[in-house]
């Protein structure tokens, strides 16, 4: 377990923490009319984190099987990571452009979900809340590029299974940490934090395309750098990352 690996995983986890399911939906839940119900928001965040942890375990198990079939020392996966990183980094410059009419989706349907899952009068209760969390995570998992890249890095790292699982657990915890901190601030200082939540929510809803571009760019750069370092590409052109 090396410091560069830990640092890269931490950055990827923080990028993932700004996604729709790990930050925007929790903020919207915190802004629900009426009394704040932090227990239900915690259930949402725990459900999202547990879902990604379970998916990560399945991906690690499948990747281990694939690497065994390819031979542990085969550079095939490293070169595949290099190509993926390059594609993501270059692709980031071509996505996220706003539509010409500046239109944005109406929030009515989500407002109804929020009332059902968080408000005291909501009839959906915890099952509806967990369903919302699982639905959001399922829709996002294929586009959570930093997360998929992190799983790839854990697979390529020469680490025992226990350490991989521990790092995956820490990654999923960091993914929901910003939302947990905002929830704590919302509980402790509602008047101070609520205007900030409203601004962040509006900005994320308006800039979702641009956010995807940034996520692709950062994830692509980190994957590209890691793969280039492991195959000696950086050293061959005189670049050292320590």
How would you characterize this protein structure?
The protein is built from eleven helices and no strands. It is an all-alpha fold. It has one domain (3-236). α3 (38-70) packs parallel to α6 (125-141). The longest helix has 33 residues, at 38-70.
| Low-confidence regions | 104-110
Distance between the termini: 15 Å
Secondary-structure class: mainly alpha
Based on Cα principal axes, name the global outline.
Answer: globular
**If you average the pLDDT, what whole number results?**
75
SS field, number of helical segments: 11
The overall number of domains is 1
Total E-strand runs: 0
H/E element sequence: HHHHHHHHHHH
Query: How would you characterize the largest beta sheet?
Result: none
Keywords:
mainly alpha; 0% strand; single chain; 242 residues
Topology:
Blueprint: H1 3-16, H2 20-30, H3 38-70, H4 76-91, H5 108-117, H6 125-141, H7 145-156, H8 161-188, H9 190-206, H10 208-230, H11 233-236
Helix pairs in contact: 1-7, 1-8, 1-10, 2-3, 2-8, 2-9, 3-6, 3-7, 3-8, 4-10, 7-10, 8-9
Summarize this, please?
With 242 residues, the chain is mainly α. The chain contains eleven helices and no strands.
């Amino acid at each position: 377990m090396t410091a560069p690996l830990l640092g890269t995983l931490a950055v990827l986890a923080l990028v993932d923490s700004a996604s729709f399911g790990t930050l925007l939906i929790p903020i919207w839940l915190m802004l629900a009319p009426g009394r704040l119900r932090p227990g239900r928001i915690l259930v949402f965040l725990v459900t999202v984190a547990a879902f990604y942890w379970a998916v990560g375990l399945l991906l690690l198990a499948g990747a281990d099987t694939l690497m065994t079939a390819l031979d542990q020392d085969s550079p095939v996966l490293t070169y595949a990571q290099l190509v993926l990183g390059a594609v993501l980094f270059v692709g980031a410059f071509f996505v996220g452009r706003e539509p010409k009419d500046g239109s944005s989706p109406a929030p009515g349907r989500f407002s109804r979900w929020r009332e059902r899952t968080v408000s005291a009068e909501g009839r959906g209760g915890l099952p509806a809340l967990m369903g919302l969390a699982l639905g959001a995570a399922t829709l996002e998992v294929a586009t959570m590029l930093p997360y998929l890249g992190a799983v790839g890095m854990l697979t390529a790292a020469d680490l025992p299974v226990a350490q991989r699982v521990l790092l995956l657990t820490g990654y999923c915890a960091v993914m929901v940490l910003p939302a947990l901190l905002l929830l704590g601030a919302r509980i402790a200082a509602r008047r101070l934090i609520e205007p900030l939540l409203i601004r962040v929510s509006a900005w994320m809803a308006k800039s979702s395309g641009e956010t995807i571009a940034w996520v692709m760019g950062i994830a692509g750069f980190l994957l590209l750098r890691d793969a280039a370092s492991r195959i000696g590409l950086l050293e061959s052109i005189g670049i050292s990352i320590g």
